[in-house]
Amino acid sequence: MNVELPAELDFLKAFYTDPRTEYKKSSWLLSDFDLHIWKYDFNFATPNTINWDITLDDETSLLAQKNKPLLDGLKYFLTTSTRSVRGSAIELGSLAAQMTMFNRAIHVADYILLNAKEYQLSRFGLAGINSHHMKRMLDVFSSVNGSEESVYEWTKTISKFCLSLINTSSSIELDSILDQYPRMRIVTDEQLDEHHLEIPFDLIPYARAALHLHGYYKKRSTAGVRTPNTLQLAKSLYANTLKGGHLKLKTLSSLEFYTDNEREIISREYPGSSVRTGDHEAMTSGPFRAYRFLTYNLGILHEIGLPAPEVSELKQILDYEPSLSEAARFRTLPYPIVRDAFRKSIEYHFKYGELLIEGFCRMAEHCNLNGIAPTQLTNGELQDIMPPELIDMGIRKLGLVCQTVSIRHGALRKQSNYFIELRNNVGLIECLRIYIGCVQMVVGTIMARRIGEMLDLHSTDCLDKSERWLIFLNRKSTSNLFGIRQRQARPIEPIAVKMIKNLISMQQRLLKSGFITEMTSLFAPPGLLGNAGLSQQTMYAYNRNLDLLCDYFELPLNSKGERYYIRQHQLRRFFSMVFFHSSSFGGLETLQWMLGHTDMQHVWNYITESTDGAVLRSAKAQFIAESLHNGDITAYEDLAEILKIRYNTDNFALVDTAELEDAITDMIKTGKVQIEPEFFTDETGQHMRVVVKIQSTD
Question: What pTM was estimated for this model as a whole?
């Protein structure tokens, strides 16, 4: 019942309004509360919609009369999610803040709908949700920073869906599709590296065939790659959610297949080591508290007179902290391996970089001038074009797998001496791609950017006018910006600038000669088959350059005979590691050689400005873990005492380095341990030592 108040007390109206009426309104809701399709707007280009016609666990529609209390409960849950105080008519101050809370409320509602069978939602409604259910939901939300895997469990869901399609599809039809698309059977080394699906390796081709049979691939290939239509998959897999059917989900590499020949020709010299970083991006405390508040806010339905979780159950999550299961952590890439690859990349740059670009541009200019394709050159003609220094280097062919006129017609296959010729610098294209891999190695290490940000770098605008800043699109800057990524600038070291400028000048010269029609992605390489132009930049091409580098430099093998093939995500902590290691080997020499800096404080400031907290934290933990594992206990006696109690030994060579690293990382996160550099100057100059501070328990 509404209460009539005098005009001077209008501000109290919100407290005397029937909540069942008041909560039907929100500034973002454009539709009548009782409509089956809602339109809502947070300053979008066009309003978004929610269709409440959702099928529940008993196959009835949420719109059915028997489900009206549940329907109204979910609707009220959304309209109250953007209010600043529970029970108040006042909405959150900014539209951006309202949109953030609304999206989180959608996640809670969708999680409930996805678990409708477990909650017996059609029978008990929201009243059937207990504290165990809510705590489990909060555990899931907090374990991964992103709704794609936490709320919607994309990887697990698509895995189950593919296996189900395989089991329900005709094996004859699947084999027919594999015969029609023979490259669908090929699972590359890179795809094995990135394979996170819960599907056995030998069933990956059949998963692709099943998806193709049911029309779940995009009609056209992009850069020689056929990818699943994730929007179409989302509509099928998350049809009975509010938002899931509209998700833009990541494409899983394992389900892609290739339509060009290049990926069939060559593979890596050895199987790849399964080394991955141990960085785990769990949800931070701020978003977690928001999800906890929203879950607790289901109790507002009691005020409206609708079924909701019992108050006693809701109280149990008021101060709940997630009991996160241990994230799957993997051994980090050994520091000496990256250090040596980094050093060799810079040496390769100084020795061959400009020479290779000169040779490739001469070849391109000659071909365009004479109206021929690169593969029409004989080996002798190519050698006549090359600078003498490249002939001395070993260049004899356009490429090791190119079908040039110097090769007899026949099936293209990998030669038994391919890797010998690779390391003898026989192929111009392979050598240039190794150089591009060296640039990726150095820029990726110094800048510590994400792989997507590296792929986004374009030859026309990746450096500012002063050539001292790298310009990139931040892959984690879409919050409250409606999906628009921010352009950001970070200081970049001169050696990396020089390498980048080499690639830019190459493209400028190729454009002038007509070999390419436009400037393109910074790391776009020539195709291994020797086709004219540069290949489109893809994750595959980027990683293929690094693979060639690793085989060329003969990076070490592990005990299983697997080679450490470097990936960008493994490089993000390395520059910080170099800084910490400079205190224990060679002093400043390594950093001076890398950067030309003599002031260690300047280097530290650069690192803290350009490296995010999680990466820096893991670098600190890895450095101390490796130091203890290698017997350097004296400098870290207090920490060693704590770890001695934990592992019942002071011989840390017996403890796995990754386990030590995890333990130290946890202590840094909880504030029990602080690891920082300490700078000092004596008669020999500036020095640095790494200091471990233990928080007092008094």
Answer: 0.64
